[in-house]
Specification:
Low-confidence stretches: 1-5, 61-65, 120-174
Shape: globular
Strand content: 25-35%
Number of strands: 15
Order of helices and strands: EHHEEEEEEEHHHEHEHEEHEHHEHHE
Oligomer: single chain
Number of helices: 12
Radius of gyration: 23 Å
Distance between the termini: 74 Å
Structural class: alpha+beta
Largest sheet: 8 strands, antiparallel
Length: about 450
């Protein structure tokens, strides 16, 4: 008999401005459905049991303590949605039914009933490994765990492992970052006017979208774009930077725009947005010739085999500029990405990054090494000083005219409080960033030129 049982039922419904079949397709795709959560790590199908998957999530706990939780889930498609049954850490059980009802105006209503129950006797935490909780604990962390793991376990599953109802209630693809773009006074029933996904350059900015646009413009300026350039936008999210490059009068008009993202949902969303923008511009402007746009889904680093990739040697023409706005520190590895970018640039073309590095002495401290090893915002191979990254670009890869600007004070001190103001889910990410800033993280804009 468990020492105690905690249970709770959630009911939620929301109108979504998207066709019923589009939402059903999302609910019926286990990988895309699960990958929507910000704590998602992986999903593997159990070949022995129908509709059963093994899912691994990150589990931030407190400060530098972070674990992972692995659990089994049944995701059973139904004619109008999906039913889920999750057996998770700490005796947590989560049963959910989602279903979609179409409306006459072409939108739909997504409805949800979720029941969460957790029971866990207060005994040795090492027994948690039997229920899928994989974590190495110190004595001090055991005390934290006894007090925090059970409510955090329930919190994680109710906030994130559900297909993030709070975020997807507003948007067709469940793209949780769009909630950050909401401005005061905007209706919860409508999509935000922008869909930015970067930390922003906050000097003089009055809102998150303003700051994000300002950061994108700094990277564009660092790339020294000229009218008629062929541009590659790497990690374009849901396409706000693509929209900026195609339509903003302050940006030189490109001759061609390519882009790559590792998220198929993001890519489809961007293709739709770009198509609508091109149609709108064609009908309202005397210039009826649209800018050619080619978008790819895949890793930013070419694996040497995938044919449909902008860094493939046989990909049409080289680029005049390659942009990576707040994303290259995630790449495996950033140095390999920069090497491939170098090979894909025309002579005289530039690579421009908004990126996270570290102060010169930060990585010599035990605190920074432990923090960046435990809380993985980036692969360890990308853990480098600002000067080290500049040297890597110049000496190891071959760029010249390598320049950078440290804009840390106009990014982290503004973006972190903004995240904290957006609710518990975003607070977890804010705490991770706070750990990195206390470890000497610096936010920079850096660019280099392929020699003529």
């Amino acid at each position: 008999m468990p020492a105690f049982t905690t249970s709770r039922e959630f009911r939620h419904e929301q109108t979504i401005q998207a066709p019923q079949e589009e939402i059903l397709a999302l609910l019926h795709n286990p990988q895309e459905l699960c990958s929507l959560g910000p704590l998602y790590k992986s999903i593997v199908k159990d070949e022995k049991e129908e509709h059963t998957y093994v899912i691994t999530d990150r589990l931030p706990i407190v400060g530098p303590i972070e674990g992972s939780t692995t659990f089994r889930a049944k995701l059973i498609p139904t004619s109008d949605g999906v039913q889920t049954d999750v057996s998770a850490a700490l005796g947590t059980r989560l049963k959910t039914k989602y279903w979609v009802e179409g409306k006459e105006d072409g939108s739909c209503v997504v409805k949800e009933i979720t029941f969460v129950e957790s029971d866990q006797p207060h005994h040795q935490l090492k027994s948690l490994s039997a229920s899928g909780f994989d974590m190495t604990l110190t004595t001090a962390q055991v005390l934290y765990g006894s007090l925090l793991l059970i409510p955090l376990s329930i919190l994680s599953y109710t906030l994130y492992r559900r297909p993030n109802a709070a975020a997807k209630s507003e948007i067709p693809y469940g793209l949780w970052h769009l909630s950050l773009n909401k401005l005061p006074g905007e209706s919860d029933e409508e999509l935000p006017k922008t869909e930015w996904l970067n930390m922003g350059y906050w000097k003089g900015a009055n809102s998150f979208p303003d700051a994000c646009r300002a950061l994108a413009l700094k990277v564009i300026a660092a790339a020294r774009l000229k009218r008629g350039d062929a541009i590659l936008d790497v990690g374009f999210g849901t396409g706000e930077s693509c929209v900026l490059l195609l339509s903003d009068t302050s940006v030189p008009r490109p001759s061609k725009l390519s882009g790559i993202t590792n998220d198929s949902l993001h890519c489809r969303r961007t293709e739709k947005r770009v198509h609508e923008l091109q149609q709108q511009r064609a009908s309202s402007s005397s210039d009826s010739s649209p800018i050619p746009v080619q978008l790819f889904t895949g890793d930013a680093v070419w694996d040497g085999d995938t044919p449909n990739h902008p860094f493939h040697p046989f990909f049409s023409d080289p680029f005049d500029a390659i942009l990576a706005i707040d994303c290259a520190y995630h790449f495996q590895t950033r140095q390999e990405f920069m090497s491939q970018a170098f090979a894909s640039l025309r002579p005289g073309g530039r690579l421009a990054l908004a990126d996270i590095c570290f102060s010169p002495t930060a990585l010599e401290t035990w605190y920074a090494r432990i923090t960046t090893s435990v809380v993985r915002l980036m692969p360890l191979e990308n853990r480098i000083s600002v000067e080290g990254l500049a040297k890597q670009m110049r000496d190891d890869i071959g760029f010249d005219d390598v320049v950078y600007e440290d804009i840390t004070e106009e990014v982290f001190p503004h973006f972190i409080p903004f995240l904290k103001s957006r609710g518990v889910g975003w607070l977890l990410f804010a705490l991770v960033l706070q750990l990195y800033t206390s470890s000497g993280a610096r936010f920079i804009v850096m660019s280099g030129r392929r020699p003529s």
